[in-house]
Design goal:
The complex is a heterodimer of chains A (about 110) and B (about 110).
Chain A (H helix, E strand, L loop, with lengths): L3 E3 L3 E4 L5 E3 L1 E3 L5 E8 L3 E8 L6 E2 L6 E7 L2 E6 L8 E8 L9 E2 L3 E5 L1
Parallel strand pairs in A: 2-12
Antiparallel strand pairs in A: 1-4, 3-9, 5-6, 5-10, 6-7, 8-9, 10-11, 10-12
Chain B lengths: L4 E3 L2 E5 L4 E6 L4 E9 L5 E8 L4 E4 L2 E6 L4 E6 L8 E9 L6 E3 L3 E6 L1
Parallel strand pairs in B: 2-11
Antiparallel strand pairs in B: 1-3, 3-8, 4-5, 4-9, 6-7, 7-8, 9-10, 9-11
The chains are: A mainly beta (about 110), B mainly beta (about 110).
Chain lengths: ~110, ~110
């Protein structure tokens, strides 16, 4: 049973396009996260959110923005896609603010920018 | 440099053998977690160990934590082909704004 759903498994976009990556969770979790994963660099946090309409920058927010209008949905936006944003994007959620619980991850979106 | 660093980067063993992976970190933590990632998929949470715990078991998994050495190990006993995956440690830092920091992972291959 799927708990965190990412809208696309594979996506190909052109340089300069505005790209939306959607993530929905059905576990009523407060916390949601966007990571990107690149070979040799591991997982790097882009943005996260502890509540509706709030967001905080992670380690690599440049070139990205996010939206959380509803508790279950956390969207990652690439304002103007560039080739260096080609990557695997992973969404995750967790309950509570204290971080004392494991994350539930989506299956990932492999984005290629050409 | 990474907060969590796994060692080795890659490990290849025969089915039935035990696999041990290590994780080192730099700053004080609330807890440390281990995740598995099958090729091209999302991560799956395996086990969480709190800073006041020294050892934890879950099925064939055994995790140890040594806060004095800032290190943790994940032991998988009686390995199976299905255990082939990448394994990541993640630290929940005391001063980390309540978010996990992931290491780069250990790629484990179980040979039949």
């Amino acid at each position: 049973d799927v708990k965190v759903t990412q809208s696309s498994r594979y996506l190909v976009k052109r340089t300069g396009e505005k790209v939306f990556l959607e993530c929905v969770q059905d576990m009523d979790h407060e916390n949601m996260f966007w990571y990107r994963q690149d070979p040799g660099l591991g997982l790097r946090l882009i943005y996260f959110s502890y509540d509706v309409k709030m967001k905080e920058k992670g380690d690599i927010p440049e070139g990205y923005s996010v939206s959380r209008e509803k508790k279950e949905r956390f969207s990652l936006i690439l304002e103007s896609a560039s080739t260096n944003q080609t990557s695997m994007y992973l969404c995750a959620s967790s309950p509570y603010r204290q971080g004392a619980y494991g994350y539930t991850f989506g299956s990932g979106t492999r984005l290629t920018v050409v | 440099s990474q907060q969590g660093e796994e060692d080795p980067q890659a490990l290849s063993i025969q089915e039935g053998e035990n696999a041990t992976m290590n994780c080192s970190y730099k700053t004080s933590i609330n807890n440390l977690q281990w995740y598995r990632q099958n090729s091209g998929r999302g991560l799956v949470h395996l086990i969480l160990i709190r800073s006041n715990e020294r050892e934890k078991h879950s099925g064939r998994l055994r995790v140890t934590l040594d806060t004095s050495k800032k290190s943790s190990s994940l032991l998988i006993t009686a390995s199976r082909a299905a255990d082939t995956a990448s394994y990541f440690c993640a630290t929940d830092l005391i001063q980390g704004a309540q978010k996990l920091v992931f290491g780069q992972g250990t790629r484990l291959t179980i040979n039949p």
